[in-house]
Amino acid sequence: MRRFTADLHIHTCLSPCAELDMTPRRIIDKALKAGLDIIAVSDHNSSENVAVALQAAARAGMAAFAAMEIASSEEVHVLSVFGSAEDAAAMQELVYENLTSGENDDDLWGSQVVVNERDEVLGFNRRLLIGATRLPVRRLLEEIRARGGLAIASHVDREAFSVISQLGFIPEDLRFDALEVTRPGALGNEYPGMPRVGFSDAHRLEDVGRRKTSFFMEAPSLEEIALALKGSGGRRVAVE
Amino acid sequence: MKIADVTGLDGVRVLVGGDPERKVTGCYVSDLLSDVLANAKEGNLWVTRQTHPNVVAVVSVRGLSGVIITAGRAVEPETLAKAEAEDITVLSASGSTFEIVGEVYNLLRAKGAAS
Question: Does the structure show a pLDDT above 80 at A101?
């Protein structure tokens, strides 16, 4: 059993609200400097920079997962984490089919840049990634799990786009694998069945790793993360 | 004003009945359930586009007179079932939030809010 520090909620330049210098390569560099063991890049409603991020992480000897922050129809943000770029791509396909229509306005929302491993621009995503999907949150969780992913409720203690701001409270039948908090201790003893995690939600390079979570587990794999979240076999999770 | 006054408006359908004599003290418009939980007043009629079953819980907890779902949006069956079980009034307005709120506003001015 070892301790792995992880930041699984990091945006890249593909997210309109993230800064343009947030390329996967630079994110990995920053993550290394911040002493992180595991990262995941999680853009809004898209995973087009994931493959490059996984390659960059592998070259740097860092563990990484494929994530995506998906907006449900109620505008609840769900951080979905997958073990491979293929699984994330399968989820992305469903998200794209269900994304409310509209084209991104680069001046208004920000550019949505797809890059390669040399930080070169491959293209601009024209979809309105800042929009919401037509997937209600319960269905969204089912679809994430059907593709082998973990479903974490994003920043539940924030006033916007959190399951609590949007739905008032987390209903009994909505089981997230974890609740992401921005302040340790947020939510107190409520929802005792769901573990807390803390990640950066970085939209700027300097924020990578500003919040992280320690996973006490055997190896940096998605299966181990799932077990650690359940507290299985002595594994555990601690918000830093 | 009563719920029965609102159900008489053009484009408004009753999805789950509740008590038509229920008093309407005012109207609250929001699509954030946390906002409604914090700020709506007892007896308020709530206008929203949200159809998640938590909507029923919020109406119940805050003692609202009912909820209107706008733009003819389909309401999840689970939400309707919960409303039936808890005797909550759920109405559907075919028009936009803007239109139905305008109508309810005028009605409240004409008939007066219940206290």
Answer: no
Is residue B12 pLDDT above 90, yes or no?
Answer: yes
Which residue of chain A is at minimal alpha-carbon distance from B75? A136
The DSSP string of A88-142 is HHHHHHHHHHHBPP-B--HHHH---EEE-TTS-EEEE--B-TTS-BS--HHHHHH
Amino acid present at A137: V
Given CB atoms, is A185 within the 8 Å cutoff of chain B? no
pTM for the whole structure: 0.90
Q: What's the burial of A221, exposed, middle or buried (CB within 10 Å: 0-12/13-18/19+)?
A: middle
CA-based nearest distance B68→chain A, Å: 16
**Closest residue of chain A to B50, computed from CA coordinates:** A74
Reading the block at residue A226, the tokens are 């799932």
Q: Is A164 on the interface with B (CB under 8 A)?
A: yes
Which whole-number Å values give the CA distances from A112 to A7, A16, A23, in the listed order? 22, 5, 11
Q: Above 80 in pLDDT, residue B15?
A: yes
Mean pLDDT of the B5-14 span: 95
Cβ–Cβ of A168/B57 closer than 8 Å? yes
Cβ separation of A167 and B36 shorter than 8 Å? no
Name the residue with tokens 């919020």: B58
The SS3 call for residue A165 is: helix
B74 interaction partners in chain A (CB closer than 8 Å): none
pLDDT of residue A88: 98
Q: How far is CA B82 from the centre of its chain?
A: 15
Report whether A14 contacts A46 (CB < 8 A): yes
Interface of A with B in 95-134 (CB under 8 A): none
Other CB atoms within 10 Å distance of the CB of residue B75? 20
